[in-house]
Design the sequence.
């Protein structure tokens, strides 16, 4: 039966080469006091920082740079919230990849809260308000620019939380594919693997509407084709543009409205891995994907492999044995775009696997009716060991 849904995305997308020119009029809607947030310096290397500073001459700019990949609650969110409170910030302008955007979304709510911000991120306290957030995206991957999620790590607690709240939808996302020309081959591949995984998480559900299957298959085809072009020719505008647009759609819910429960199990596992080992999100997901697929492959899940096999790889799937060929094809695809396909290559061994399985069950809960296929502790351990 088609599941009921309530769907809204209030974020406006401004897409195309040169659309940064709209930034002053966009920010003016919220005020003149801007907190500009960014990561480790890529925006300076590509000239975007200078471009923004010159466009925003009439604004009062405060800055928070140095936001880490897998952004940390302390120092980044804490420091950003402090800057907002002390300087009476009207709007946050996040410039960068998913980490900078997520950190800025967390700052937006923590700045409006008097207590310990982690209470909000961890779901203990419900946020009541947020500072408006606008972003300029520089890396196609997470879809943070078009969703209301923020993933924040708390190193003191060895925790990485996905915080989801309608208050943190960006108001505007400025998407200029030319800013992604400088993204390294590794981050291009990992970003694509992340977006592919967003689609796959929701593709594995029951029911999955025919319209959604069609949209998801075409999103996967586009990602798989265009990443190869972008790896070959990093400044291919059309390939970068399509990657950027599909990544925005992939985590936004629009491809899976009405589908059954899925539970996002691969993300649950990856969030534990990057909480414990601070690895690149998309690489972790690429490693997990074929192992998770092997774990959940059964007569019940076979129909999903039938569609993926036929549409993506031209593999006809009639039984479980055939489905293994589809799983191998995903493995080879990720390997082919340059992602290390074993955790050992990321210096992870089996020492903390049981601890991670407990962590996943406690914080992400991979058992229960919200799962397409439940994963108990033994299943999680099996998957993680296969990933080694
Ligand atoms: O820090 P800088 O110097 O900017 O360098 C970054 C960083 O080193 C670099 N980069 C970004 N744009 C660039 C560039 N380098 C050259 N040229 C450019 N134009 O790329 C590196 C990775 O950046 P990061 O923002 O960490 O990558 P990504 O966009 O993949 O974000 C990953 C984070 O997002 C979370 C992940 O868990 C992870 O913490 N996720 C957020 C989601 C959401 N909000 O909906 C969903 C995802 O599933 C994911 O969990
Ligand atoms: Zn992801």
Sequence:
């Amino acid at each position: 039966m088609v599941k009921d849904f309530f769907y809204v995305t209030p974020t406006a997308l401004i897409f195309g080469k040169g659309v940064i020119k709209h930034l002053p009029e966009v920010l003016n809607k919220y005020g003149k006091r801007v907190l500009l947030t960014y990561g480790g310096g890529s925006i300076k290397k590509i000239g975007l920082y200078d471009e923004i500073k010159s466009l925003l001459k009439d604004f009062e700019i405060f800055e928070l740079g140095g936001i880490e990949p897998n952004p940390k609650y302390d120092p980044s969110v804490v420091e950003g919230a402090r800057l907002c409170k002390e300087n009476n910030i009207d709007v946050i302008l996040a410039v960068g990849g998913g980490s900078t955007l997520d950190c800025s979304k967390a700052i937006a709510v923590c700045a409006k809260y008097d207590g310990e911000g982690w209470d909000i991120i961890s779901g203990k306290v419900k946020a009541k308000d947020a500072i408006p957030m606008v972003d300029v995206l520089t890396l196609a991957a997470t879809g943070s620019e078009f969703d209301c999620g923020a993933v924040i790590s708390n190193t003191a607690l060895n925790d990485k939380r996905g915080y989801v709240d309608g208050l943190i939808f960006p108001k505007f996302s400025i998407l200029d594919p030319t800013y992604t020309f400088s993204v390294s081959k590794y981050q291009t591949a990992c970003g694509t693997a992340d977006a592919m995984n967003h689609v796959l998480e929701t593709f594995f559900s029951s029911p999955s509407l025919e319209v959604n299957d069609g949209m998801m298959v075409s999103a996967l085809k586009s990602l798989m084709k265009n990443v190869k072009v972008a790896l070959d020719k990093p400044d291919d505008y059309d390939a970068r543009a399509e990657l950027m647009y599909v990544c925005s759609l992939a985590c936004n819910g629009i491809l899976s409205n009405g589908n059954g429960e899925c539970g996002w199990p691969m993300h649950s596992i990856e969030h534990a891995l990057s909480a414990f080992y601070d690895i690149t999100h998309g690489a972790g997901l690429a490693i997990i994907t074929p192992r998770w697929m092997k774990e959940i492959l059964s007569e019940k899940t076979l129909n999903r492999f039938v569609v993926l096999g036929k549409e993506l790889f031209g593999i006809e799937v009639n039984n479980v044995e055939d489905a293994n060929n589809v799983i191998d094809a995903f493995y080879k695809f990720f390997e082919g775009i340059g992602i290390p396909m074993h955790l050992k290559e990321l210096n992870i061994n089996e020492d903390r696997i049981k601890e991670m399985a407990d962590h996943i069950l406690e914080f992400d809960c991979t058992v229960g009716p919200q799962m397409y296929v439940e994963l108990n502790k033994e299943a999680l351990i099996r998957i993680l060991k296969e990933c080694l």
